Amino acid sequence: MSVSDKYQIEQRYIRIGNSRPGTGLTGPLFIVAHETANNSADADDHFAYFNNSQPSASAHTFIDDGKILEIIPLNEKAYHNLYTNPEDNRLFGADANDAAIGVELCRTGVFREAYDRYVWYHAYLCRRFNLDPSTKIVAHSTLDPRRRTDPESWLVPNGVTFAQFLRDVRAYYNAWDSSTSPPIRVQPPERETGSEVDTTILRRGDSGADVTFLQRKLISLGYPLPRFGADGTFGAETEAAVRQFQQEQRIRVDGIVGPETFGRLNRAKPRRPKPFPGTLYRLKSPYMRGSNIGEIQRKLGVPADSIYGPVTAQAVRNFQRKEGIKVDGIVGPVTWARLFR
Ligand SMILES: [Zn+2]
């Protein structure tokens, strides 16, 4: 068996969408090396994320310690570098998205195994597309130095400099047809957790198709957005629904949708309606308080201080009017069922 046969490449392509425009790549003229900056998502998780969530960012290939997975055909474009960055044009005379293959190293599993596949795959691309491994592989951090630190952000904590990575690729490239795999120089793994996330995240203030997709997903899972629906704008109502989802999933509650929350959204089953607790919630003196009122407020998109004051009562009346049910500002079984369906 020769080095060229050391690993299999799996091709499982995501559907056409924001992540995969389905348009042709020029060349490829060069390769952009990335790492995902996500400690918990492997290659399959990234496939699911891009296939389902379709953020307008992507890469061709995801590599973990057991798999080399191409999720976008190598003759099509992927979005793995900002078009506005000038360095790709300066170095290679083209935008990376139009002329480069983007390769992502996943953080999950055994670093040495994932890294060996990552090195091998870069050598494979250089062989296949006749690219010089010393000059045609560029770090994402070189193209986007203000925003990105990858792939060094995962290589260096594991004992590999980018220069060493290029030497390892060169060694594989030179040994491609031989039967002996070259040694890679990896120091014992030293696990560090990074906080930078390379994939798209959605948070309050964002808008567009990704947000609409997120909102439809939330609604379908039983997190209604009664005031604004799937309007494509990530405002207070969407944030409250995301927080509630995160709370119920027992993951970090920050109202921000990154790969982990997207992964949970993709796997979650629709939640059951919350049964009416048997108490009428209404404006009275002193004001009623309690966590159920906080949940009512989150559903209504008003500040959730867990106190049933005039603002909440007014929001309940508005909601009831919109729903076409009796307008009395009191949350009884009917209003509750509409709020928590
Ligand atoms: Zn990157």
TrEMBL record:
EC number(s) given by UniProt: 3.5.1.28
Keyword Hydrolase in record: yes
Swiss-Prot/TrEMBL keywords: Cell wall biogenesis/degradation, Hydrolase
TM segment ranges: none
Domain N-acetylmuramoyl-L-alanine amidase: from-to ranges: 18-152
GO BP terms: cell wall organization; peptidoglycan catabolic process; peptidoglycan turnover
Organism superkingdom: Bacteria
One MF annotation (Gene Ontology) recorded for this entry: N-acetylmuramoyl-L-alanine amidase activity
Keyword Protein transport set for record: no
Classification via InterPro entries: Amidase/PGRP_sf, Amidase_domain, NAMLAA_amidase_2, Peptidoglycan-bd-like, PGBD-like_sf, PGBDSf
Catalytic activity: Hydrolyzes the link between N-acetylmuramoyl residues and L-amino acid residues in certain cell-wall glycopeptides
Family note: Belongs to the N-acetylmuramoyl-L-alanine amidase 2 family.
Protein name per the record: N-acetylmuramoyl-L-alanine amidase
High-level lineage: Bacteria, Bacillati, Bacillota, Bacilli, Bacillales
